[in-house]
Records
---
Amino acid sequence: MQSDVVSIARIYEKKYSIKVDEEFILLKLMEEVGELAEAVLTLNGKSRPEKKISKKEAKKKLAHELADVVGIVMVCGDVYGVDLEKAIKEKWLKWKKV
Ligand SMILES: [Mg+2]
C-alpha cells in the first residue's frame, strides 16, 4: 500500500510543481494533523455553527483525515528513507511478545 500512496504523492508533485522533499512532507503532516483535529472537533460538536455537519458526515470526514495522516506518514517514510513496516515491527509489534 505504501508504494501506491507514494506514487500518488509523485503525481501530486508533478501536477502542482511542488517538490515533495523533507521540509514539505513534514509541514504537510502538520497540516493534515490540524485537519484531523478539526474533524474531531466537528464530530464532537465543538466547531463553529457554520461548520456543523451531520454525525455521519463528520465520521466520514474523520476517517478521511485519518487516512490523510497515515498516507502522509507513508510518504514521510519514503522521503526519509525509512522502512516503515520494519520500524513498526520493531517499535510496536514487539509488544505482541509481552
Ligand atoms: Mg486532509
---
Amino acid sequence: MPQRPAATDRICPNCDGFPSVAVTLGGRDRAGHLRTITAHCPACHGTGTAPLWLVTTRVSTAGR
Ligand SMILES: [Zn+2]
C-alpha cells in the first residue's frame, strides 16, 4: 500500500490522492474472503502524487 503523500507532494488530480482501490469481483473464495482486485490510478501509477507540471498545467479550451 502506498504511503500517504507528504504535504510537499502534489496530489494527483485524477485520483485526488487515492491511487489504489480494491474492486470486488463478486462472490467469495473457499475461505469466505471477498474476491477483489487492486486497481491503480493510470495517471499516477498508484503513487497518489503527480509531477508539478501536471498539476499546474491547465488546458484551457473553453471561453475563447
Ligand atoms: Zn492518480
